[in-house]
Amino acid sequence: MPKKRVLVGMSGGVDSSVAAALLLEEGYEVVGATMDLLPGGPSPDLADARRVAQALGIEHHVLSLQREFEREVITPFCREYLAGRTPNPCISCNRSIKFGEMGKAADALGCDFLATGHYAKIEWDQSLGRWLLKRADSRKDQSYVLYHLSQEQLSRVLLPLDPYTKEEIRALAAKYALPVAQKGESQEICFIQDNDYPSFVTAFSGNGTPPGDFIDEEGRVIGRHKGILYYTIGQRKGLGQSFGRHMYVSEINPADNTVRLVEAGREYFSGLTADTLNAVAFERFPVSFSAQAMIRYQAKPAPCTVERTGEDEVTVTFETPQRAVTPGQSAVFYQGDTVLGGGVIVSGTAADRMR
């Protein structure tokens, strides 16, 4: 019987390199692919991925996806920031690029499966007749950023790192003598240097955001901000001025160019509304169900009730109010270790004063 052929997305980092080595050891015919996403010529990461492929003795391809990445990830990212929201571009990239465009490449290269170095678990549930996405055993669990994968995508994705911790993966990289065994972690967002979002958005879009007013809960002007690009919900530091007490960003309104600030204890939200839904553990969201919601990557899951209020909308009510519910981020719903699905946060519901 011929070996099953798997395309491994190789970023040049430790995780994806070990994923390729593990699948090779398991008996798959492994093909490496590295996405060329950013202008400016080949990156050091691409060279590292090529060196790992050579060390493993596997086929390696470079996928030129700069136009697709700009269209599907960078442009929406900038548009969201200019609209006063705070998007998670890794989720967009996973959906459209890593498991979208790279899935097409897997087909073109005759591969049965697609694999990445994410820490999460995929299982078939016979009783539900569905593929389930679950948390990894590792504290580095990344199931949150994979919640938008479809059943078709889940059916062909392999995630070989699930049983391992990051420390164990580094030990395996040394065992396999991979040239990236000692390589550090990659930066949070690959296309932004030094986490300077405002400068990037302004340069890429050609649009900045002008200074405007800080307002309080009653709408009274209490100061001046330097542009809505510089703020996100829940922010306390970096407001640019002192108010004599801790103040938090609770709302960003591009329509009138205001940033609303509230005192400590008022930065909590009793619930949220989300749209752009993707159901994983069921065909569509039930009318109402209990879950634990993660409202940002690596947030602590918060017990809640989820109610479907439209074909592509849910409202969420938390058992305990949560800080900094941020439009543009995703709310991902779990029951235990299982991802039920998720959606993009549209708005938060301010909680009563907490003291």
Which descriptors apply to this entry?
25% helix, globular, five-stranded parallel sheet, alpha/beta, 355 residues, 7 helices, six-stranded antiparallel β-barrel
In a nutshell, what does this entry contain?
This protein is of the alpha/beta class.
How many angstroms does the end-to-end distance come to? 66 Å
- Widest sheet: strand ordering: 12-15-14-13-16-17
Proportion of strand residues: 25-35%
Shape: globular
Helix content: 10-25%
> What is the strand tally?
17
Residue ranges: pLDDT <50 for 5 or more in a row? none
Query: Would you tell me the overall average pLDDT?
Result: 93
How can the largest sheet be summarized? 6 strands, antiparallel, barrel
Over the alpha carbons, how many angstroms does the gyration radius reach?
22 Å
Estimated structural class: alpha/beta
Order of helices and strands: EHEHEHHEEEHEHHEEEEEEEEEE
Helix segment tally: 7
Please characterize this protein's 3D structure.
α1 (14-25) packs across α6. The strands form four sheets. A six-stranded antiparallel barrel has the order 12-15-14-13-16-17. The chain has a five-stranded parallel sheet with strand order 3-2-1-4-7, sandwiched between helices. The protein has 355 residues and is of the alpha/beta class. It is 25% helix and 33% strand. It is globular, with a radius of gyration of 22 Å. The mean pLDDT is 93. It has seven helices and 17 strands.
